[in-house]
Automatic annotation (TrEMBL), chain A:
InterPro entries: TAT_signal. The keyword Transcription regulation does not apply. This is ABC-type transport system involved in multi-copper enzyme maturation, permease component. PROSITE patterns: TAT (PS51318). Keywords: Membrane, Transmembrane, Transmembrane helix.
From TrEMBL, chain B:
Keywords: ATP-binding, Nucleotide-binding, Transport. SMART domains: AAA. Pfam families: ABC_tran. This is ABC-2 type transport system ATP-binding protein. It comes from Geodermatophilus ruber. One of its GO terms (molecular function) is ATP binding.
Length: 285, 331
Protein backbone atom coordinates (compact mmCIF):
# COMPACT_ATOMS: atom_id res chain seq x y z
CA UNK A 1 0.00 0.00 0.00
CA UNK A 2 2.75 2.42 0.98
CA UNK A 3 4.96 1.59 -2.02
CA UNK A 4 1.93 1.90 -4.27
CA UNK A 5 1.12 5.34 -2.87
CA UNK A 6 4.75 6.48 -3.29
CA UNK A 7 4.77 5.35 -6.92
CA UNK A 8 1.33 6.86 -7.60
CA UNK A 9 2.39 10.24 -6.24
CA UNK A 10 5.77 10.08 -8.00
CA UNK A 11 4.04 9.35 -11.32
CA UNK A 12 1.60 12.18 -10.63
CA UNK A 13 4.49 14.58 -10.02
CA UNK A 14 6.18 13.56 -13.26
CA UNK A 15 2.93 13.98 -15.12
CA UNK A 16 2.49 17.43 -13.59
CA UNK A 17 5.99 18.43 -14.77
CA UNK A 18 5.24 17.32 -18.31
CA UNK A 19 1.68 18.65 -18.48
CA UNK A 20 2.53 22.01 -17.00
CA UNK A 21 5.04 22.41 -19.85
CA UNK A 22 8.00 22.49 -17.45
CA UNK A 23 9.56 19.75 -19.53
CA UNK A 24 9.07 21.72 -22.74
CA UNK A 25 10.52 24.90 -21.25
CA UNK A 26 13.57 23.01 -19.98
CA UNK A 27 14.01 21.27 -23.33
CA UNK A 28 13.94 24.59 -25.20
CA UNK A 29 16.45 26.16 -22.79
CA UNK A 30 18.72 23.15 -23.00
CA UNK A 31 18.60 23.01 -26.80
CA UNK A 32 19.50 26.70 -26.91
CA UNK A 33 22.45 26.09 -24.60
CA UNK A 34 23.57 23.04 -26.58
CA UNK A 35 23.34 24.90 -29.89
CA UNK A 36 25.27 27.89 -28.58
CA UNK A 37 27.96 25.69 -27.06
CA UNK A 38 28.20 23.59 -30.23
CA UNK A 39 28.82 26.76 -32.20
CA UNK A 40 31.37 27.99 -29.66
CA UNK A 41 33.26 24.69 -29.47
CA UNK A 42 33.34 24.35 -33.26
CA UNK A 43 34.97 27.81 -33.51
CA UNK A 44 37.45 26.73 -30.84
CA UNK A 45 38.68 23.87 -33.01
CA UNK A 46 39.84 26.33 -35.67
CA UNK A 47 40.77 29.17 -33.30
CA UNK A 48 44.05 30.99 -33.68
CA UNK A 49 45.73 33.00 -30.98
CA UNK A 50 48.47 35.57 -31.33
CA UNK A 51 50.95 32.70 -30.95
CA UNK A 52 49.43 30.78 -33.85
CA UNK A 53 46.97 27.91 -33.93
CA UNK A 54 46.19 26.05 -30.70
CA UNK A 55 47.90 22.74 -30.35
CA UNK A 56 45.57 19.81 -29.93
CA UNK A 57 46.60 19.58 -26.26
CA UNK A 58 45.79 23.24 -25.68
CA UNK A 59 42.47 22.89 -27.44
CA UNK A 60 41.57 19.94 -25.21
CA UNK A 61 42.50 21.92 -22.15
CA UNK A 62 40.39 24.91 -23.14
CA UNK A 63 37.55 22.58 -24.15
CA UNK A 64 37.62 20.87 -20.77
CA UNK A 65 37.41 24.24 -19.03
CA UNK A 66 34.62 25.44 -21.28
CA UNK A 67 32.78 22.18 -20.69
CA UNK A 68 32.84 22.88 -16.97
CA UNK A 69 31.48 26.35 -17.63
CA UNK A 70 28.65 25.08 -19.83
CA UNK A 71 27.84 22.28 -17.39
CA UNK A 72 27.52 24.92 -14.69
CA UNK A 73 24.92 26.58 -16.89
CA UNK A 74 23.09 23.26 -17.19
CA UNK A 75 23.17 22.62 -13.47
CA UNK A 76 21.84 26.14 -12.95
CA UNK A 77 18.90 25.40 -15.26
CA UNK A 78 18.25 22.17 -13.37
CA UNK A 79 18.54 23.99 -10.04
CA UNK A 80 16.07 26.69 -11.03
CA UNK A 81 13.71 24.13 -12.55
CA UNK A 82 13.59 21.79 -9.58
CA UNK A 83 13.57 24.53 -6.93
CA UNK A 84 10.59 26.21 -8.57
CA UNK A 85 8.85 22.84 -9.01
CA UNK A 86 9.50 21.66 -5.46
CA UNK A 87 8.04 24.78 -3.84
CA UNK A 88 4.60 24.81 -5.45
CA UNK A 89 4.27 21.07 -5.18
CA UNK A 90 3.77 21.13 -1.40
CA UNK A 91 2.99 24.66 -0.29
CA UNK A 92 1.10 25.54 -3.45
CA UNK A 93 -1.14 22.49 -3.20
CA UNK A 94 -1.82 23.20 0.46
CA UNK A 95 -2.67 26.82 -0.38
CA UNK A 96 -4.97 25.98 -3.27
CA UNK A 97 -6.74 23.14 -1.47
CA UNK A 98 -5.60 20.33 -3.79
CA UNK A 99 -3.93 18.54 -0.87
CA UNK A 100 -7.13 18.52 1.23
CA UNK A 101 -8.80 15.86 -0.90
CA UNK A 102 -5.54 13.92 -1.39
CA UNK A 103 -4.48 13.83 2.27
CA UNK A 104 -7.96 12.87 3.46
CA UNK A 105 -7.31 9.55 1.72
CA UNK A 106 -5.83 6.66 3.74
CA UNK A 107 -2.26 7.84 3.12
CA UNK A 108 0.50 8.98 5.43
CA UNK A 109 1.78 12.46 4.74
CA UNK A 110 5.37 11.21 4.76
CA UNK A 111 4.42 8.68 2.06
CA UNK A 112 3.00 11.43 -0.12
CA UNK A 113 6.11 13.52 0.52
CA UNK A 114 8.37 10.61 -0.43
CA UNK A 115 6.40 10.17 -3.66
CA UNK A 116 6.75 13.87 -4.51
CA UNK A 117 10.46 13.78 -3.71
CA UNK A 118 10.99 10.66 -5.80
CA UNK A 119 9.12 12.14 -8.75
CA UNK A 120 11.11 15.37 -8.57
CA UNK A 121 14.40 13.51 -8.14
CA UNK A 122 13.71 11.37 -11.21
CA UNK A 123 12.68 14.46 -13.15
CA UNK A 124 15.60 16.69 -12.09
CA UNK A 125 18.21 13.92 -12.13
CA UNK A 126 16.94 12.61 -15.46
CA UNK A 127 17.13 16.05 -17.01
CA UNK A 128 20.68 16.63 -15.83
CA UNK A 129 21.87 13.23 -17.04
CA UNK A 130 20.28 13.52 -20.50
CA UNK A 131 21.24 17.15 -21.06
CA UNK A 132 24.75 16.62 -19.65
CA UNK A 133 25.34 13.59 -21.84
CA UNK A 134 24.14 15.54 -24.90
CA UNK A 135 26.56 18.34 -24.01
CA UNK A 136 29.47 15.93 -23.73
CA UNK A 137 28.59 14.44 -27.11
CA UNK A 138 28.57 17.93 -28.61
CA UNK A 139 32.07 18.48 -27.22
CA UNK A 140 33.21 15.08 -28.48
CA UNK A 141 32.01 15.84 -32.00
CA UNK A 142 33.33 19.41 -32.15
CA UNK A 143 36.73 19.23 -30.39
CA UNK A 144 37.20 15.49 -29.82
CA UNK A 145 37.30 15.74 -26.02
CA UNK A 146 35.66 13.13 -23.79
CA UNK A 147 35.63 13.62 -20.00
CA UNK A 148 37.69 11.13 -17.97
CA UNK A 149 34.78 10.08 -15.73
CA UNK A 150 31.49 10.87 -17.44
CA UNK A 151 29.38 8.48 -15.31
CA UNK A 152 30.68 9.93 -12.05
CA UNK A 153 30.23 13.48 -13.30
CA UNK A 154 26.61 13.00 -14.36
CA UNK A 155 25.80 11.12 -11.13
CA UNK A 156 27.24 13.97 -9.06
CA UNK A 157 25.33 16.57 -11.08
CA UNK A 158 22.13 14.58 -10.50
CA UNK A 159 23.00 14.36 -6.80
CA UNK A 160 23.42 18.13 -6.71
CA UNK A 161 19.94 18.53 -8.17
CA UNK A 162 18.50 16.12 -5.59
CA UNK A 163 20.15 18.09 -2.77
CA UNK A 164 18.61 21.31 -4.04
CA UNK A 165 15.13 19.91 -4.51
CA UNK A 166 15.22 18.43 -1.01
CA UNK A 167 16.08 21.91 0.24
CA UNK A 168 13.18 23.30 -1.81
CA UNK A 169 10.82 20.72 -0.23
CA UNK A 170 11.78 21.54 3.34
CA UNK A 171 11.49 25.26 2.65
CA UNK A 172 8.07 24.86 1.07
CA UNK A 173 6.74 23.24 4.26
CA UNK A 174 7.53 26.42 6.21
CA UNK A 175 7.29 29.34 3.78
CA UNK A 176 5.08 30.26 0.81
CA UNK A 177 5.68 28.46 -2.51
CA UNK A 178 7.19 31.45 -4.26
CA UNK A 179 9.50 32.29 -1.37
CA UNK A 180 10.72 28.70 -1.11
CA UNK A 181 11.88 28.71 -4.75
CA UNK A 182 13.60 32.06 -4.37
CA UNK A 183 15.31 31.06 -1.11
CA UNK A 184 16.47 27.69 -2.49
CA UNK A 185 18.00 29.23 -5.60
CA UNK A 186 19.49 32.04 -3.52
CA UNK A 187 21.14 29.58 -1.15
CA UNK A 188 22.41 27.57 -4.12
CA UNK A 189 24.05 30.72 -5.54
CA UNK A 190 25.40 31.75 -2.14
CA UNK A 191 26.97 28.31 -1.61
CA UNK A 192 28.65 28.52 -5.01
CA UNK A 193 30.04 32.01 -4.30
CA UNK A 194 31.19 30.88 -0.86
CA UNK A 195 33.01 28.01 -2.59
CA UNK A 196 34.79 30.47 -4.92
CA UNK A 197 35.65 32.73 -1.97
CA UNK A 198 37.05 29.70 -0.14
CA UNK A 199 39.19 28.87 -3.20
CA UNK A 200 40.61 32.40 -3.23
CA UNK A 201 41.33 32.04 0.49
CA UNK A 202 43.29 28.84 -0.19
CA UNK A 203 45.43 30.52 -2.83
CA UNK A 204 46.09 33.48 -0.57
CA UNK A 205 46.91 31.08 2.25
CA UNK A 206 44.23 32.71 4.41
CA UNK A 207 42.73 29.91 6.50
CA UNK A 208 39.82 32.04 7.70
CA UNK A 209 38.67 32.81 4.17
CA UNK A 210 39.35 29.26 3.01
CA UNK A 211 37.12 27.99 5.82
CA UNK A 212 34.15 29.91 4.33
CA UNK A 213 34.15 27.47 1.42
CA UNK A 214 34.55 24.41 3.63
CA UNK A 215 31.75 25.44 5.98
CA UNK A 216 29.36 26.34 3.17
CA UNK A 217 30.10 22.99 1.50
CA UNK A 218 29.06 21.25 4.74
CA UNK A 219 25.92 23.35 5.26
CA UNK A 220 24.67 22.91 1.70
CA UNK A 221 26.46 20.18 -0.28
CA UNK A 222 25.51 21.54 -3.74
CA UNK A 223 28.85 23.31 -4.27
CA UNK A 224 30.90 20.37 -3.01
CA UNK A 225 29.09 17.96 -5.35
CA UNK A 226 29.49 20.43 -8.21
CA UNK A 227 33.24 20.57 -7.59
CA UNK A 228 33.36 16.78 -7.62
CA UNK A 229 31.48 16.75 -10.91
CA UNK A 230 33.89 19.34 -12.38
CA UNK A 231 36.84 17.20 -11.37
CA UNK A 232 35.33 14.24 -13.17
CA UNK A 233 34.73 16.35 -16.29
CA UNK A 234 38.00 18.24 -16.62
CA UNK A 235 41.16 17.14 -18.37
CA UNK A 236 43.67 15.82 -15.77
CA UNK A 237 46.43 17.95 -17.29
CA UNK A 238 44.49 21.12 -16.48
CA UNK A 239 45.56 21.03 -12.85
CA UNK A 240 49.21 20.65 -13.78
CA UNK A 241 48.97 23.63 -16.15
CA UNK A 242 47.22 25.95 -13.69
CA UNK A 243 49.26 24.86 -10.69
CA UNK A 244 48.22 25.63 -7.12
CA UNK A 245 46.64 28.96 -8.12
CA UNK A 246 44.00 26.93 -9.93
CA UNK A 247 42.06 26.66 -6.69
CA UNK A 248 40.92 30.24 -7.11
CA UNK A 249 39.51 29.59 -10.57
CA UNK A 250 35.79 28.77 -10.19
CA UNK A 251 35.70 26.29 -13.09
CA UNK A 252 38.57 24.10 -11.99
CA UNK A 253 38.45 21.50 -9.24
CA UNK A 254 41.58 20.32 -7.46
CA UNK A 255 40.57 16.97 -6.07
CA UNK A 256 37.90 14.31 -6.51
CA UNK A 257 35.28 13.97 -3.81
CA UNK A 258 36.11 11.87 -0.80
CA UNK A 259 33.85 9.00 0.21
CA UNK A 260 33.30 10.77 3.52
CA UNK A 261 31.94 13.85 1.76
CA UNK A 262 29.62 11.72 -0.38
CA UNK A 263 28.37 9.99 2.77
CA UNK A 264 27.81 13.40 4.32
CA UNK A 265 25.79 14.50 1.27
CA UNK A 266 23.60 11.39 1.55
CA UNK A 267 23.15 11.97 5.28
CA UNK A 268 22.37 15.64 4.62
CA UNK A 269 19.61 14.72 2.16
CA UNK A 270 18.18 12.15 4.60
CA UNK A 271 18.19 14.61 7.49
CA UNK A 272 16.68 17.48 5.54
CA UNK A 273 14.07 15.14 4.05
CA UNK A 274 13.25 13.95 7.57
CA UNK A 275 12.86 17.55 8.68
CA UNK A 276 10.50 18.20 5.76
CA UNK A 277 8.49 15.06 6.66
CA UNK A 278 8.14 16.14 10.30
CA UNK A 279 7.15 19.69 9.34
CA UNK A 280 4.67 18.43 6.74
CA UNK A 281 3.12 15.89 9.13
CA UNK A 282 2.51 18.60 11.73
CA UNK A 283 1.10 21.12 9.30
CA UNK A 284 -2.57 22.14 9.66
CA UNK A 285 -4.25 22.29 6.28
CA UNK B 1 -2.05 -34.21 29.83
CA UNK B 2 -2.32 -30.86 31.51
CA UNK B 3 -2.02 -28.78 28.38
CA UNK B 4 -5.41 -29.42 26.71
CA UNK B 5 -7.24 -28.80 29.97
CA UNK B 6 -5.55 -25.40 30.15
CA UNK B 7 -5.99 -24.61 26.45
CA UNK B 8 -9.62 -25.67 26.20
CA UNK B 9 -11.16 -23.08 28.51
CA UNK B 10 -8.98 -20.45 26.84
CA UNK B 11 -10.44 -21.33 23.45
CA UNK B 12 -13.92 -21.21 24.86
CA UNK B 13 -13.20 -17.86 26.43
CA UNK B 14 -11.79 -16.55 23.16
CA UNK B 15 -14.86 -17.77 21.29
CA UNK B 16 -17.17 -16.23 23.85
CA UNK B 17 -15.29 -12.96 23.60
CA UNK B 18 -15.44 -13.11 19.81
CA UNK B 19 -19.18 -13.72 19.91
CA UNK B 20 -19.60 -10.87 22.34
CA UNK B 21 -17.65 -8.52 20.07
CA UNK B 22 -19.48 -9.74 16.97
CA UNK B 23 -22.78 -9.06 18.69
CA UNK B 24 -21.86 -5.48 19.51
CA UNK B 25 -23.35 -2.77 17.34
CA UNK B 26 -20.80 -1.41 14.82
CA UNK B 27 -18.76 1.56 15.97
CA UNK B 28 -20.08 4.95 14.84
CA UNK B 29 -18.99 6.12 11.40
CA UNK B 30 -17.52 9.27 12.93
CA UNK B 31 -17.06 10.00 16.58
CA UNK B 32 -15.18 12.62 18.53
CA UNK B 33 -15.06 13.97 22.02
CA UNK B 34 -13.41 16.92 23.72
CA UNK B 35 -12.03 18.32 20.47
CA UNK B 36 -10.14 21.54 20.99
CA UNK B 37 -8.18 23.73 18.60
CA UNK B 38 -6.62 27.13 19.12
CA UNK B 39 -5.15 29.29 16.38
CA UNK B 40 -2.86 31.65 18.23
CA UNK B 41 -4.99 33.24 20.95
CA UNK B 42 -8.28 32.54 19.22
CA UNK B 43 -10.10 29.39 20.21
CA UNK B 44 -11.63 27.91 17.05
CA UNK B 45 -13.05 24.73 18.55
CA UNK B 46 -13.64 24.29 22.25
CA UNK B 47 -14.68 20.88 23.52
CA UNK B 48 -16.78 19.56 20.66
CA UNK B 49 -18.22 16.06 20.91
CA UNK B 50 -20.33 14.56 18.18
CA UNK B 51 -21.17 11.24 16.65
CA UNK B 52 -22.44 10.10 13.27
CA UNK B 53 -23.92 6.61 13.39
CA UNK B 54 -23.65 4.10 10.53
CA UNK B 55 -26.07 5.07 7.80
CA UNK B 56 -27.07 8.21 9.61
CA UNK B 57 -27.26 11.65 7.97
CA UNK B 58 -26.14 14.37 10.34
CA UNK B 59 -26.27 18.07 9.59
CA UNK B 60 -23.70 20.48 10.96
CA UNK B 61 -25.09 23.97 11.33
CA UNK B 62 -23.84 27.22 12.72
CA UNK B 63 -22.85 30.76 11.80
CA UNK B 64 -19.64 31.65 9.96
CA UNK B 65 -16.58 31.04 12.12
CA UNK B 66 -18.41 28.62 14.42
CA UNK B 67 -15.68 26.02 13.83
CA UNK B 68 -17.61 23.65 11.56
CA UNK B 69 -14.90 23.25 8.93
CA UNK B 70 -12.19 22.94 11.60
CA UNK B 71 -14.15 20.14 13.30
CA UNK B 72 -14.48 18.36 9.96
CA UNK B 73 -10.76 18.75 9.24
CA UNK B 74 -9.87 17.36 12.66
CA UNK B 75 -12.16 14.37 12.07
CA UNK B 76 -10.24 13.69 8.82
CA UNK B 77 -6.76 14.19 10.24
CA UNK B 78 -6.13 17.34 8.18
CA UNK B 79 -5.83 19.53 11.27
CA UNK B 80 -4.15 18.31 14.47
CA UNK B 81 -6.44 18.79 17.45
CA UNK B 82 -4.87 20.34 20.57
CA UNK B 83 -6.92 17.90 22.64
CA UNK B 84 -9.62 15.31 22.15
CA UNK B 85 -10.22 11.91 20.61
CA UNK B 86 -11.34 11.04 17.11
CA UNK B 87 -12.58 7.64 15.91
CA UNK B 88 -13.35 7.00 12.25
CA UNK B 89 -15.26 3.81 11.40
CA UNK B 90 -14.09 2.25 14.65
CA UNK B 91 -10.39 3.10 14.27
CA UNK B 92 -8.43 5.91 15.87
CA UNK B 93 -8.35 9.03 13.72
CA UNK B 94 -4.54 9.16 13.82
CA UNK B 95 -4.33 5.93 11.81
CA UNK B 96 -4.53 6.80 8.09
CA UNK B 97 -6.09 3.39 7.39
CA UNK B 98 -9.19 4.60 9.27
CA UNK B 99 -9.97 6.80 6.27
CA UNK B 100 -9.98 3.94 3.73
CA UNK B 101 -13.77 4.12 3.39
CA UNK B 102 -14.24 7.85 3.84
CA UNK B 103 -15.28 10.24 1.08
CA UNK B 104 -14.65 13.96 1.50
CA UNK B 105 -15.65 17.07 -0.39
CA UNK B 106 -13.68 19.97 1.11
CA UNK B 107 -15.12 23.44 1.45
CA UNK B 108 -12.10 24.67 -0.55
CA UNK B 109 -12.37 22.22 -3.42
CA UNK B 110 -9.61 22.20 -6.03
CA UNK B 111 -8.37 19.30 -8.08
CA UNK B 112 -5.17 18.91 -10.12
CA UNK B 113 -5.89 21.28 -13.05
CA UNK B 114 -3.50 19.41 -15.32
CA UNK B 115 -5.46 16.14 -15.00
CA UNK B 116 -8.71 15.20 -16.71
CA UNK B 117 -11.82 14.49 -14.65
CA UNK B 118 -11.46 10.74 -15.25
CA UNK B 119 -7.77 10.87 -14.19
CA UNK B 120 -8.65 12.66 -10.96
CA UNK B 121 -11.08 9.87 -10.10
CA UNK B 122 -8.52 7.19 -11.01
CA UNK B 123 -5.95 8.90 -8.78
CA UNK B 124 -8.32 8.93 -5.82
CA UNK B 125 -9.31 5.31 -6.36
CA UNK B 126 -5.61 4.38 -6.26
CA UNK B 127 -4.92 6.49 -3.18
CA UNK B 128 -7.92 4.94 -1.43
CA UNK B 129 -6.51 1.49 -2.21
CA UNK B 130 -9.89 0.52 -3.65
CA UNK B 131 -10.54 -1.69 -6.65
CA UNK B 132 -13.18 0.26 -8.55
CA UNK B 133 -13.53 -0.75 -12.22
CA UNK B 134 -13.40 2.05 -14.85
CA UNK B 135 -17.09 1.56 -15.68
CA UNK B 136 -18.06 2.32 -12.10
CA UNK B 137 -15.82 5.41 -12.11
CA UNK B 138 -17.57 6.61 -15.28
CA UNK B 139 -20.97 6.01 -13.66
CA UNK B 140 -19.81 8.10 -10.73
CA UNK B 141 -19.03 11.01 -13.06
CA UNK B 142 -22.39 10.54 -14.76
CA UNK B 143 -24.08 10.65 -11.36
CA UNK B 144 -22.83 14.20 -10.79
CA UNK B 145 -23.59 15.27 -14.35
CA UNK B 146 -20.05 15.19 -15.76
CA UNK B 147 -20.40 12.18 -18.07
CA UNK B 148 -19.61 14.27 -21.14
CA UNK B 149 -16.55 15.94 -19.59
CA UNK B 150 -14.60 12.87 -18.42
CA UNK B 151 -11.74 13.51 -20.86
CA UNK B 152 -11.48 17.29 -20.28
CA UNK B 153 -8.79 18.94 -18.16
CA UNK B 154 -10.05 20.09 -14.77
CA UNK B 155 -8.27 23.43 -15.32
CA UNK B 156 -11.00 24.38 -17.79
CA UNK B 157 -13.87 23.56 -15.41
CA UNK B 158 -16.13 26.19 -13.85
CA UNK B 159 -16.44 26.41 -10.07
CA UNK B 160 -19.72 24.53 -10.16
CA UNK B 161 -18.28 21.76 -12.32
CA UNK B 162 -15.27 21.43 -10.02
CA UNK B 163 -17.66 21.06 -7.09
CA UNK B 164 -19.54 18.37 -8.98
CA UNK B 165 -16.21 16.65 -9.64
CA UNK B 166 -15.49 16.95 -5.92
CA UNK B 167 -18.74 15.12 -5.19
CA UNK B 168 -17.70 12.36 -7.59
CA UNK B 169 -14.29 12.14 -5.86
CA UNK B 170 -16.03 11.85 -2.49
CA UNK B 171 -18.27 9.05 -3.77
CA UNK B 172 -15.96 7.10 -6.08
CA UNK B 173 -14.11 4.80 -3.65
CA UNK B 174 -17.26 3.12 -2.27
CA UNK B 175 -17.27 5.07 1.01
CA UNK B 176 -19.06 4.04 4.18
CA UNK B 177 -19.11 7.61 5.38
CA UNK B 178 -19.14 10.78 3.31
CA UNK B 179 -18.22 14.20 4.65
CA UNK B 180 -19.61 17.07 2.60
CA UNK B 181 -18.41 20.53 3.57
CA UNK B 182 -20.68 23.12 1.96
CA UNK B 183 -21.40 20.85 -1.03
CA UNK B 184 -23.72 23.32 -2.78
CA UNK B 185 -21.75 26.57 -2.34
CA UNK B 186 -20.95 26.87 -6.06
CA UNK B 187 -24.01 25.11 -7.47
CA UNK B 188 -27.07 26.50 -9.19
CA UNK B 189 -30.56 25.67 -7.84
CA UNK B 190 -30.71 22.59 -10.07
CA UNK B 191 -27.35 21.41 -8.69
CA UNK B 192 -28.64 21.85 -5.16
CA UNK B 193 -31.53 19.56 -5.89
CA UNK B 194 -29.04 17.06 -7.36
CA UNK B 195 -27.01 17.14 -4.15
CA UNK B 196 -30.12 16.62 -2.07
CA UNK B 197 -31.09 13.60 -4.15
CA UNK B 198 -27.53 12.33 -3.89
CA UNK B 199 -27.54 12.52 -0.11
CA UNK B 200 -30.92 10.81 0.01
CA UNK B 201 -29.64 7.99 -2.22
CA UNK B 202 -26.58 7.60 0.03
CA UNK B 203 -28.91 7.36 3.01
CA UNK B 204 -30.91 4.66 1.22
CA UNK B 205 -27.70 2.70 0.62
CA UNK B 206 -26.79 2.95 4.29
CA UNK B 207 -23.88 5.35 3.80
CA UNK B 208 -23.39 7.75 6.69
CA UNK B 209 -23.21 11.44 5.79
CA UNK B 210 -21.92 14.44 7.71
CA UNK B 211 -23.31 17.49 5.94
CA UNK B 212 -22.14 21.02 6.65
CA UNK B 213 -24.41 23.46 4.90
CA UNK B 214 -25.71 26.99 5.20
CA UNK B 215 -28.89 25.95 3.44
CA UNK B 216 -31.01 25.08 6.43
CA UNK B 217 -33.87 23.96 4.23
CA UNK B 218 -31.62 21.31 2.64
CA UNK B 219 -30.42 20.10 6.03
CA UNK B 220 -33.98 19.94 7.34
CA UNK B 221 -35.05 17.86 4.37
CA UNK B 222 -32.30 15.24 4.39
CA UNK B 223 -30.82 15.01 7.90
CA UNK B 224 -31.78 12.57 10.65
CA UNK B 225 -29.96 14.60 13.25
CA UNK B 226 -28.54 18.08 13.54
CA UNK B 227 -25.58 19.44 15.51
CA UNK B 228 -25.54 23.19 15.94
CA UNK B 229 -22.14 24.76 16.59
CA UNK B 230 -21.66 28.26 17.90
CA UNK B 231 -18.31 29.84 18.81
CA UNK B 232 -16.57 26.47 18.71
CA UNK B 233 -19.04 24.74 21.02
CA UNK B 234 -22.04 22.49 20.50
CA UNK B 235 -24.97 24.82 21.12
CA UNK B 236 -27.61 22.13 20.53
CA UNK B 237 -27.80 18.65 19.11
CA UNK B 238 -30.53 16.13 18.51
CA UNK B 239 -32.95 14.64 16.04
CA UNK B 240 -35.12 17.04 14.11
CA UNK B 241 -38.10 15.87 16.17
CA UNK B 242 -36.22 16.70 19.37
CA UNK B 243 -34.97 20.08 18.19
CA UNK B 244 -38.20 21.03 16.48
CA UNK B 245 -40.36 19.17 18.97
CA UNK B 246 -42.34 22.28 19.83
CA UNK B 247 -45.41 22.23 17.69
CA UNK B 248 -48.02 24.90 17.90
CA UNK B 249 -51.55 25.69 16.78
CA UNK B 250 -52.81 29.14 15.80
CA UNK B 251 -56.48 29.82 16.45
CA UNK B 252 -58.77 32.68 15.51
CA UNK B 253 -61.62 32.65 18.06
CA UNK B 254 -64.49 34.90 19.14
CA UNK B 255 -66.91 34.39 21.99
CA UNK B 256 -64.07 33.44 24.32
CA UNK B 257 -65.30 32.78 27.85
CA UNK B 258 -63.23 31.98 30.93
CA UNK B 259 -64.04 28.33 30.40
CA UNK B 260 -62.65 28.57 26.85
CA UNK B 261 -59.53 30.31 28.18
CA UNK B 262 -59.08 27.59 30.78
CA UNK B 263 -59.43 24.89 28.12
CA UNK B 264 -56.82 26.65 25.96
CA UNK B 265 -54.44 26.94 28.91
CA UNK B 266 -54.91 23.24 29.62
CA UNK B 267 -53.64 22.42 26.10
CA UNK B 268 -50.37 24.30 26.59
CA UNK B 269 -48.80 27.77 27.04
CA UNK B 270 -50.99 30.36 25.33
CA UNK B 271 -49.99 33.61 23.62
CA UNK B 272 -52.92 35.94 22.85
CA UNK B 273 -53.25 38.91 20.56
CA UNK B 274 -56.87 40.14 20.43
CA UNK B 275 -58.85 37.28 18.88
CA UNK B 276 -55.80 35.31 17.83
CA UNK B 277 -54.31 32.66 20.03
CA UNK B 278 -51.11 30.65 19.68
CA UNK B 279 -51.03 27.47 21.76
CA UNK B 280 -47.74 25.62 22.10
CA UNK B 281 -48.38 21.90 22.07
CA UNK B 282 -46.41 19.30 24.04
CA UNK B 283 -43.59 17.49 22.24
CA UNK B 284 -45.10 14.06 22.92
CA UNK B 285 -48.35 14.93 21.19
CA UNK B 286 -49.61 11.95 19.17
CA UNK B 287 -51.80 14.05 16.89
CA UNK B 288 -54.95 14.07 19.04
CA UNK B 289 -54.37 17.36 20.86
CA UNK B 290 -55.65 19.65 18.09
CA UNK B 291 -58.89 17.76 17.21
CA UNK B 292 -59.67 17.30 20.92
CA UNK B 293 -59.11 20.99 21.58
CA UNK B 294 -61.34 22.06 18.66
CA UNK B 295 -64.11 19.69 19.76
CA UNK B 296 -64.00 21.01 23.35
CA UNK B 297 -63.86 24.66 22.28
CA UNK B 298 -66.90 24.20 20.06
CA UNK B 299 -68.70 22.47 22.91
CA UNK B 300 -67.86 25.43 25.19
CA UNK B 301 -69.55 27.79 22.73
CA UNK B 302 -66.48 29.44 21.20
CA UNK B 303 -66.82 30.52 17.56
CA UNK B 304 -63.91 29.08 15.64
CA UNK B 305 -62.83 31.09 12.57
CA UNK B 306 -59.50 29.45 11.82
CA UNK B 307 -57.27 26.64 13.06
CA UNK B 308 -53.69 26.47 11.71
CA UNK B 309 -51.44 23.77 13.07
CA UNK B 310 -47.81 24.82 12.69
CA UNK B 311 -44.29 23.52 13.18
CA UNK B 312 -41.35 25.68 14.08
CA UNK B 313 -38.88 25.62 11.21
CA UNK B 314 -35.29 24.63 11.78
CA UNK B 315 -34.29 28.12 10.73
CA UNK B 316 -36.39 29.74 13.49
CA UNK B 317 -35.02 27.25 15.99
CA UNK B 318 -31.42 27.84 14.86
CA UNK B 319 -31.82 31.60 15.08
CA UNK B 320 -33.45 31.20 18.50
CA UNK B 321 -30.54 29.09 19.79
CA UNK B 322 -27.87 31.38 18.38
CA UNK B 323 -29.59 34.55 19.64
CA UNK B 324 -30.04 33.18 23.14
CA UNK B 325 -26.36 32.11 23.11
CA UNK B 326 -25.30 35.58 22.02
CA UNK B 327 -27.61 37.12 24.64
CA UNK B 328 -25.99 35.07 27.40
CA UNK B 329 -22.55 36.17 26.28
CA UNK B 330 -23.55 39.82 26.32
CA UNK B 331 -24.85 39.47 29.85
Amino acid sequence: MTARTVLTVAALTLREASRRKVLRALAVLTLALLALSAWGFSRLAVAETQFGALTSGQARLVASQLLNLVMFGLSLIAALGTAFLAGPTLAGEAESGISLAVLARPVRRSTVLLGKWLGLAVFGGGFVVVAGLAQCLVVLVTVDYWPPNIVGALALLAAQTVVLLTLGLVLSTVVSPMASGVVAVGLFGAAWIAGVVGGVGEVLGNDGVARVGTVSRMLLPTDGLWRGAMHALQDPTALAVFGPEGAAFPFLSEAPLTAAYLAWAVLWVAMVWGLAAVAFARKDL
Amino acid sequence: MGEPSVAAPDQAAVRAAAELVAGLPPAPALWCTGLRKRYGRRSAVDGVALSVGRGEVVGLLGPNGAGKTTVIKMLLGLVRPDAGEVMVLGRPGGDPAARARVGYLPELFRYQPWLTAAEVLRLHVRLAGAAVPPDEQRECLALVGLAGRAGDRVGGFSKGMQQRLGLAVALVARPEVVVLDEPTSALDPLGRVDVRDLVLSLKERGVAVLLNSHLIGEVERVCDRVVILDSGRVAAAGTLAELLGRREVRLHLTGVTTAVEARLAAAGPVAREADRFIVALPADDDGTAVPDLVRDLAALGARIHAVEPGRISLEERLLGILRSGAGEERR
